[in-house]
Amino acid sequence: MRRSAERALAAFGADISVEPLRVSVAGGRPLIATDITVPGDPSSAAFWAAAAAGLPGASVVLDGVGVNPSRTAFLGVLERMGARVEMRLDDESGAEPLGSLTVRHASLRPVEIEPFEVPGLIDELP
Fold it and tell me: Of 4, 26, 28, 44, whose CB count within 10 A is highest?
């Protein structure tokens, strides 16, 4: 799975190789300017999603959000808590996949966040 920086480098023409424990970028190759769509930050969207999940009767639709799987671990936590979460992929042609998130209130329950999950949630935990 490519993270945001790896996808961006590839979109600008970098020769990048992604392996499970190693990322390599070949040198001596200039980056090429290109037009890209920059999606909304999923970490910023997380606060609105959490608010909708916790407020009775609430729902929120967040359009134009980056839905790179390396950035959306918080959606899985919300689902485990009982929130109703829908993610729609709208465009995967750019450097980052772009989509819409819909989060609806539900009766939430506590969940345990395991240590291995923390790196994927580091921006959303506060």
Answer: 4
